[in-house]
Amino acid sequence: MARLNVNPTRMELSRLKDRLELASRGHKLLKDKQDELMRQFISLIRENNELRNEVEEKIEAGMRSYSIANALLHDNYIGEVMTTPSQSVSLNIDQENIMNIRVPQMNFNYEDTPDDISDISYGYLNSNSELDSAIEQMLDVMPRMLELAEIEKRCQLMADEIEKTRRRVNALEYMTIPQLEETIYFIEMKLEENERAEITRLIKVKDMGD
């Protein structure tokens, strides 16, 4: 590790010791932040995985019902049903501060949400139970999909912050702090060497005077 290019003076030594103390304190704070971020990130990842599995299972069930309905019903009829929205969703995004990370807090407002499958406006004459089931399952999974989108965005932002914090921790731990320690050691050795040289010179002067 190359030491800093500074003058070996007591003033510079004091300044570097202050920098080392500040760097060490900053390293501890950042390491604590990194550990807490990792704890919250792992918890969020578990929640994300559980929710994703739930959403995927419901989508797969809905798609199975849709595949059967698609095989039994006319394509034009299914296309008409699927292109007519049964509900609308408005989104308000607030921000929540987690460890100095601004993460989204999504609030979804469902408008014209059908209370049950019977409120969906399409006729039963050309329909069948598989299509009813597919639409009902997709309506049921929509809120969970939106919740999953929020959690995954939070995971992404926290992962980015963890990586930034990790780089800063490593820079302090493996570069800044060792560099300061080596420079401080060099200056202390240089000052001691100068002191010994000065003492030797004074002894010689004294001997010459005697």
Throw out a few tags for this protein:
210 residues; mainly alpha; Helix Hairpins; two-stranded antiparallel ribbon; 73% helix; rod-shaped
Q: What would you say this structure looks like, in words?
A:
The chain is mostly helical and 210 residues long. The chain has one domain: Orthogonal Bundle (Helix Hairpins), CATH 1.10.287.3240. The protein has 3 helices and 2 strands, in the order ααββα. It has a two-stranded antiparallel ribbon with strand order 1-2. Helix 1 packs antiparallel against helix 3. The longest helix has 81 residues. 9% of the residues are buried. About 3% of the residues have low confidence.
Q: How much of the residues is beta strand, in percent?
A: 5-15%
Terminal Cα span: 48 Å
Largest sheet: 2 strands, antiparallel
Q: Please identify the structural class as seen in this structure.
A: mainly alpha
In terms of per-residue confidence, which ranges show pLDDT below 50 for 5 or more consecutive residues?
116-121
Strand order of the largest sheet: 1-2
Second-tier CATH architecture? Orthogonal Bundle
Shape: rod-shaped
Number of E-type strands: 2
Helical element count? 3
Mean pLDDT: 83
SSE succession? HHEEH
Characterize this entry briefly.
73% of the residues lie in helices and 10% in strands. By secondary structure, it is mainly alpha-helical.
Set down the secondary structure blueprint.
Layout lengths: L9 H63 L2 H9 L4 E11 L2 E11 L17 H81 L1
Antiparallel strand pairs: 1-2
